[in-house]
Amino acid sequence: MAAIISLRNVVKRYLRGKQSVEVLHGIDLDIETGDFVALMGPSGSGKTTLLNLIGGLDTPSSGEVSVAGVRIDALGGARLARWRARNVGFVFQFYNLLPQLSAQRNVELPLLLTSLSAAQRRRNVQAALAIVGLSDRAHHKPSELSGGQAQRVAIARALVSDPTLLVCDEPTGDLDRATADEILGLLQTLNREQGKTVVMVTHDPKAAEFATHQLYLDKGELVSRSTKAVA
Amino acid sequence: MKFLPLIWAALWRKKTRTVFTLLSIVVAFLLFGMLQGVNAAFNSAVDRANVNRLMVANATAFTESLPYAYLTQIESVPGVSAVSQQSWFGGYYQDPKNFVFSFPVEPLRWRRIGTEYRIPEDQFDAWVRTRTGAVVGAQLAAKYGWKIGDRVPLHSVIWTKAGGGSDWEFDIVGIFTSPEFASRENQFLFNYSYFDEARVFGKGRVGWLVVQVADPRASARIAAAIDHLFANSPDETETKTEKEFQQSFLKQIGDINFIVTRILFAVFFSLLFATGSSLMQSMRERIPELAVLKTVGFTDAGVLRLVLAESVMLCVLAALAGLAAAALLFPALRDAIGVVTLPRAVLAEGVVIAVLLALATGLLPAWRARRLSIVDALAGR
Ligand SMILES: Nc1ncnc2c1ncn2[C@@H]1O[C@H](COP(=O)(O)OP(=O)(O)O)[C@@H](O)[C@H]1O
Ligand SMILES: [Mg+2]
Questions:
Q1: Interface confidence (ipTM) of the complex
Q2: Residue B374: nearest ligand to its CA?
């Protein structure tokens, strides 16, 4: 299958005070449509940085980033924002829900940027909440949800605009084993049954086992790549 | 419109803070509405002054009186079509706080000049015939429930009666209206002849004279001629147009416009900082949430508009509440300023100021929100 994500010689530097620090040193990477990739590596190795480049939250200092045929390293500002809205769903370690909004309103957020009517938005939100199994929690505030439920709401928000790519940064980092496995199972289902390409940062080897591929990053370089036979 | 719940929720994120901010804006606009309303009411009295009228007062001080004889002398000045006279009675009804705008006048002379008053012919005739007769404005009559035929005592803080005491009795014989000048309907007018006969001191003198000129373009010349007539007499005069007279009357109270502007300036200046810092604080607390909005695809400009919309919503809603409260309270000032409703222009001005306040206080946090970097915000940097 064709690569949905392809990085060529990607370098990322940050300015720390006056000093420029290179965090990623020329990454080359291809991820194919329908892959579930676990990105592993020690803390500070650049996993989040790499994931942010793939998801279009940040742009590389040099090199090319193509996602679904679009050179997103060349996009900026509003165009990159609009590209994200259409193409990527994000899931974070700490759920990042808006605390004052109900689950339903949180899930609706990406749809506010579309031209969908209120009724259509409501239907899509209900569908997304049904997929993550939280139809009965639509009117709860994040503070009224457990960690696992909050993360499901976040996944529903990532799904609601039907992106091809899901980008997850330690989505189970804040959850106990059993809840983590539920969330990982959900991501696996989305990958298998809805064909979502998933890129997930984790440093939990058990979590990585849910993926079809595992990547290891160390000090800003990809050191190995393993492909697991799909069970 | 679909962003409304988002804006609303953000606004009420910290309820107590929002309530306090809201209240301070409400109070500021309540004050704005009342003060500007009073100011506008006074100014409208000046603006609507009759250009055909001159006011003649004692040059020493406008509270000093003039000889009655001046009246007939001025009547013979060329260009003068009518002259009337009034005095300050300083009356109150039953209680000093029930102050009544009361003036002794000569009914026939008064009517030739007071074209803004409407009074039925038979009532006017009764007033001319009745020595102790008085005519009262419709608002004043309604306030105390006075009817024609009532005998009403007024206590004067200035004038004592020959028989002793300062309580004067009047028989209400007429009720007048003044459709274009509602404040006149608070007046209480009675016969000068009765007043002059009965008072102990000041006999034969009047408070000021109202002169009607046929041609307003001749006003300045006629005013000069009148003052010239009494130059070097014990009672020199100072003649002004009604407009100038109203203005100098207002100056006695103080330069209202100046005071009001200063007070409001101070109020809004402090409001600027209070509201601004509260909005800024709220924006800082929401940095991770704003980053999430950007993550899901809100543009930098979109986030700027959201934060700005919050401050506009806060300021405009609070301003409307404050202005509404002012409009409700305004009629209570009727006795003091004679205007019943808050002028529309003041309300419109208030809304414009609210939007300006919102932009002034919201722009900085909105700009910061716009510049927010997603990755830094997500990493808590
Ligand atoms: N915006 C930034 N400014 C400065 N340094 C950064 C920034 N983002 C990341 N870094 C640094 O880059 C390195 C990699 O960070 P990150 O990608 O978050 O690692 P990981 O997710 O693997 O723990 C770390 O040393 C981190 O301090
Ligand atoms: Mg990380």
A1: 0.94
A2: 1
- B-chain residues within 8 Å CB-CB of A58? 374-375
- Same domain? For B185 and B284 the reply is no
**pLDDT at residue B253, rounded to an integer:** 63
Q: How far apart are CA A73 and CA A58, in angstroms?
A: 9
B373 phi/psi in degrees, rounded to 5 = -90, 130
**Residues B334 and B195 placed together within one structural domain of the fold:** no
Q: Do B145 and B104 share a structural domain?
A: yes
Indicate the number of domains in chain B.
2
* Residue located nearest, by CA, to atom 17 of ligand 1: A46
> Which of B253, B286, B310 is at the close of a domain?
B253
- For strands A62-67 and A3-16, give the pairing: antiparallel
Residue among B13, B294, B379 whose CB faces A100 most closely: B13
Instruction: Write out the H or E segment, with its range, that includes residue B66.
Output: strand B66-67
Partner-chain contact B296 A100, CB within 8 Å? no
Residue B373 and residue B260 share a domain: yes
Read off the pLDDT of each residue in B198-223 and give the average, rounded to a whole number. Answer: 91
Q: Are residues B98 and B16 in the same domain?
A: no
Q: Are residues B161 and B272 in the same domain?
A: no
Domain extent for B182: 51-253
Contacts of A98 in chain B (CB under 8 A): 9, 289, 292
Our measurement of the distance from residue A89's CA atom to the centroid of its chain's CA atoms, rounded to an integer in Å, reads 6
Q: Is residue A44 in contact with ligand 1, taking CB distance under 6 Å? A: yes
Of B229, B253, B277, the last residue of a domain is: B253
Question: Do residues B147 and B282 share a domain?
Answer: no
Q: Which residues neighbour B144 within 8 Å (Cβ) at sequence distance 6 or greater?
A: B93, B98, B152
- Domain check: are B259 and B247 in the same one? no
Residues of chain A with pLDDT under 70: 1, 226-231
Reading the block at residue B253, the tokens are: 């109270």
Q: Identify the residue whose tokens are 């202005």.
A: B323
Q: What is the pLDDT of residues B9-66, one digit of tens each?
A: 999 988 999 999 999 999 999 999 988 888 777 777 777 777 788 999 999 887 889 9
The alpha carbon of residue A78 is apart from the nearest alpha carbon of chain B, in Å, by 5
What is the average per-residue pLDDT within B316-345? 81
